[in-house]
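Re: export button greyed out
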Amino acid sequence: MFKYFITLQWKSFWRSASMTSGLFMKLFMAFWAFWLLGLSALGGIGAFTVIEEKLELDPLDTINRFLIYWWVGDLLFRYALQKMPVINIKPLLLLPFNKKKIVSFAFGKTAFSFFNVIHAFFFIPFSITMIANDYPVANVLLWNLGLIALVYGNNFLNIILNKKDNLIFIIGGVIAVLGGLHYFGYFDITVYTAPFFQALYNSWAVTLIPVIITILLIVFSFRSFVKDLYLDAGLAKQSKNIKTENLDWLDRFGKTATFLKNDIKLIKRNKRARSTVMVSVLFLFYGLLFFTGSVEAYDGPVWKIFAAIFVTGGFLLSFGQFVPSWDSSYYPLMMSQNIKYKEYLSSKWWLMVIATLISTVLASGYLYFGWDVYLAIIVASIYNIGVNSHVVLWAGAYVKTPIDLTSNKKAFGDKQAFNTKTLMLSLPKMVLPMILYAIGHYTYSPYAGYALVTVAGLAGFAFRDKVFDIIEKIYKTEKYKTISAYKQKK
Amino acid sequence: MIEVHNLSKTYTGNTVLNIDHLEIQKGKSFGLVGNNGAGKTTLFSALLDLIQPTTGHIENNGIKVNLSEDWKSITSAFIDETFLIGYLTAEEYFYFIGELRGQNKADVDALLAQFEDFFHGEILGQRKYLRDLSKGNQKKVGIVAALIGKPEVIILDEPFANLDPTTQIRLKKIIKELSADPDITVLVSSHDLMHVTEVCERIVVLDKGEVVKDIATSEETLKELEEHFNK
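Workaround output, generated via the alternate export path:
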């Protein structure tokens, strides 16, 4: 019976809209995947040598201290990025499948998820290096077993947590506070947690704890999913009483207002779109990593621009990336109405500009770290509005993944809007301003760097209409392909 | 009003639509019948420039639909639920369509008032998003939205499906009233021979993408159609 599930998965993977995107895109994705894997493998070996030789600390001790952050970070990362195992449940319910089989297949699929496998690429090289350095094999294996249990524990914890909104923000907040206290030297959580991870290495009895907890988590989430496998329970959609909204005050934007009003409702009323706003709020704090000087690798002047782009552009990047896709569920309507593409585009553009400006104002908290930092943020904001806003719209024109706005409809549906592909696509947008800044910074002065980035941003404004023309052309040439891709529901 | 020239659509060697010539007069009501896969929705989609014909083209009011977008202001359609915006309430949706078609709120309200009967108290003021309405009620919303902004060409794909008997009768009345207007051309497709013969002045039967019958509706039409499909 599992054979059928697997062929179903196989087909849905290879026949999905995103797989039929161009060869270049596939190569690009493959390149980044290998890059990440290679990087973590190198990291595994490198971490051991660096800690031992440069810092002259015991590698195992040091790693154990940070494992608590690794563990929580992994959980947060999963919550944001890992998609729940998607299989079409409804049509299977009536077939003579055992419900437990449906759920166990869905769970089995998560076991091979990228988010579980990625850790192996760090810890296996690290462990091999350990063994090569005369750590006892049995203990290293024991330690690994404990870590594997923790990784899979997270996997299933995420499945349970994913059904609950906002809980993750509480966990994230607690961790941010603990991390802050650690950094400023008030309270060091690792003092209390490191012995636990050390004990995973030393004692099989302790290793049993995560193993048992993981098994309990599997049993618990398994039961809760089997129980909820009803159309009016886990698979149900909720509807609540809502009000009609006018938003007439937006009419001052003229023709664009028609779409702006719609877009604001889109963001307010759809879980998936709402989470882009959450993402942009989180990105506001991203700069702390850079500007506090807490991560040494990020102290280079060029990283300032990198951080500032994210701080002001969180919404722009996560929303803009999917621009026609947000309207995918009613794209044929849009295409058969008398819509000027430019008005449609400019509504999205304004939305991104407004969000970027708000982020820039909110980011004034960074003034605490000096005028220079805030200058970088303002410069990046100009660049975001002038250049990146157009680039994301441009890239979005090629993204043909339909978005299911009401993703909470399916218990196993993908819950989070922010996917890996988006992240990878946004990298090139970071690199150009960094290069521009570096040219100015290293040939003349930091201000020359800022000036160059600003000029690039302003130049983007000047070309706005031109770029809109190009995007409009892409929309037109891609129109039929886009319509047919959006027809495919995941 | 609408002219189809040498139109064909082929998907990987499989021809789903092949119409040499078809002309639909202005002010008439035009019915399209045929079995599943006959090409009804494909023809309507091509007419709305949602799919690209393999050969040929369609002219709407003298405008080639794939070259200019000027036909959009005089044409409206409801094909399926992809013409609805799920996260809006019915009112918000009507006003949105109204704004796209140059109608202010008062215009839209005036139009909606005519359809109170048709809505049967299940559409306006419902405090529900369109995606949470039943299929039948979604269809009512889509059909009425297609009438906003005085379109000259109205395209309805399977308008009778999913509607309850009362609403079907009311819809027939609406379509008849529309086709009585010499400026409005109504295009309807249906699986229901009875409904379509009742409301359409002309009926075209599609079979595997080709026009096999083209009848001006008369007393005998229903019988003729039934015989055709009973083969």
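Residues 2-227 of chain A form one domain. The button fix ships in the next patch.
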